[in-house]
Design brief:
The chain has about 450 residues and is α/β, with parallel strands linked by helices. It has 17 helices and twelve strands. α2 packs parallel to α5. Bound molecules: NADPH dihydro-nicotinamide-adenine-dinucleotide phosphate and (2Z)-2-iminopentanedioic acid. NADPH dihydro-nicotinamide-adenine-dinucleotide phosphate binds near residues 246 and 325.
Length: about 450
């Protein structure tokens, strides 16, 4: 298919994607954002279109969908659906997290696997793209139920993964506890102790700083963005959504870098603490969420100066920097306008695709610093890549060594965004920069490897 203009390319290509993948709205959204960034480049590189590189990139190499039967504590039979989308292995083994959440469906799995392919290419490490998960939610389940579910899930998944084939990790609803149960079952079935999952415990093959890595990396990337305008975290008011892995360590690093973090949230509401979260309060949140598996509203009971807002998101609270760290499509166009009207000058995404297209347009039109998740949250999977390296050489590095590598990687990703995303007027389009840099690396590998 020959396209005369970038606009006709986007329209024609998206028409085909939508017709071929009906109803997969999150997948359409993720592809549309990428294709929009690539169109100018593709028009002047027609050989990539001739070889249908883009068509191949939106067609997963393999999708596995499977039944996950288990028995709950009351003796009832439960059936969930398991997924693994192995999107692209051009630059390394499939790599990407596993999400356990009631909303999980094929569209969400495909959007996440697609994003992961570009993100992993940006990390500078050799990792392909994948994502998996289930419509099972660990929330409200006992440890025994979570273990039984994980064992059943892995009983099927183990056939399709391996340390040099596909290496899953955590995501929403999958943290250290779930990775432990999944790893135990894999090891038992395969009789092999290896780096088949990342996010493992420190004394059984895990990497120092993997739990911290996504949030810390997000802050290192944001520091780089702020530095382009001669600014830093020092004295800035930061709003964060989510209260899970990414949100907790984003809050911790932002606080360490001198910011005042005033919000956290979960799917029921958000807390606003006008005094800001300090080290002790962040420790409390970690304990509340990771050990007691409580709700964020309990924060306002523990710290009465904080207010809890049920059924609301934190974007109405005035801030300098907003860091969405919960889930996809959690900032809409109206919320983006409110953020800007209240003086926000930087939005750095910790979650995957947290901003709706209308919100992204607002950020870009007003010229604030805005980074897409696939660039700014790549520190998590990058540190997973470092965990794979440590597993391969059977060594464990120190936290300082891993932190230095993480800082270096986030700097390199930022530099790649500048290289490919700098506009004529000197501003940086981080969406374009990240998409183009990731695309070129994967496309070149695909071209070199022939039609596979
Ligand atoms: P967690 O499960 O640890 O925490 C998720 C948090 O987001 C919880 O506070 C949860 O609240 C909230 N949340 C989840 N779904 C929704 C929803 N539909 N609406 C509102 N709030 C919601 O997950 P992570 O912190 O690991 O992941 C957060 C985001 O970061 C995701 O987009 C993930 O894909 C992305 N990410 C994660 C990485 C990692 O290394 N873990 C790496 C890169 C990106 P509740 O308890 O109410 O569900
Ligand atoms: O979205 C992501 O990058 C993750 N959930 C982390 C994936 C990984 O393999 O560490």
């Amino acid at each position: 298919m020959y396209y005369h203009s970038p606009e006709s390319l986007v329209q024609g290509f998206m028409g085909e994607v939508i017709a071929r993948n009906p109803g997969e709205k999150e997948f359409h959204q993720a592809v549309s954002e990428v294709v929009g960034s690539l169109a100018d480049y593709l028009i002047v590189h027609p050989h990539l279109m001739d070889r249908k590189i883009l068509e191949r990139m939106v067609e997963p190499e393999r999708i596995i969908i499977f039944r996950v039967p288990w028995i709950d504590d009351s003796g009832q039979v439960r059936i969930n659906r398991g997924f693994r989308v192995q999107m692209n292995s051009a630059i390394g083994p499939y790599k990407g997290g596993i999400r356990f959440h009631e909303s999980v469906n094929l569209s969400i799995m495909k959007f996440l696997a697609f994003e992961q392919t570009f993100k992993n290419a940006l990390t500078t490490l050799p990792m392909g793209g994948a994502k998996g998960g289930s419509d099972f939610s660990p929330r409200g389940k006992s440890d025994a139920e979570v273990m039984k579910f994980c064992q059943s899930f892995m009983t099927e998944l183990q056939r399709h993964i391996g340390k040099d084939t596909d290496v899953p990790a955590g995501d929403i609803g999958v943290g250290g506890r779930e990775i432990g149960y999944l790893f135990g079952q894999y090891k038992r079935l395969q009789n092999e102790f290896g780096g088949v999952l990342t996010g493992k415990g420190l004394n059984w093959g895990g990497s120092p700083l993997r739990p911290e890595a996504t949030g810390y990396g997000l802050c290192y990337f944001t520091e780089q963005m702020l530095a382009t305008r001669g600014e830093s975290f020092e004295g800035k008011v930061v709003t964060i959504s989510g209260a899970g892995n990414v949100a907790q360590f984003t809050a911790e690093k932002a606080f360490q870098l001198g910011a005042k973090v005033v919000t956290l949230s979960d799917s029921n509401g958000f807390i606003y603490d006008p005094d800001g979260l300090d080290a002790e309060k962040i420790e409390y949140v970690k304990e509340l969420k990771n050990i007691y598996r409580g709700r964020i509203r309990e924060y306002a009971q523990k710290y009465p100066k904080a207010q809890y807002f049920p059924d609301a998101r934190p974007w109405g609270i005035p801030c300098d920097i907003a860091m969405p760290c919960a889930t996809q499509n959690e900032i809409n166009e109206a919320e983006a306008k409110t953020l800007i009207a209240n003086g926000c000058t930087c939005v750095a995404e910790g979650a995957n695709m947290p901003s709706e297209p209308g919100a992204i347009a607002v950020f870009q039109q007003t010229g604030i610093l805005y980074s897409p998740g696939k660039a700014s949250n790549a520190g998590g999977v990058a540190t997973s890549g470092l965990e794979m390296t440590q597993n391969s050489i059977r060594l464990q590095w120190t936290p300082e060594e891993v932190d230095n590598q993480l800082r270096r990687i986030m700097k390199d990703i930022h530099a790649a965004c500048l290289r490919y995303g700098k506009e004529a007027d000197g501003t940086v389009n981080y969406v374009k920069g990240a998409n183009l840099a990731g695309f070129i690396k994967v496309a070149e590998a695909m071209m070199a490897q022939g039609l596979v």
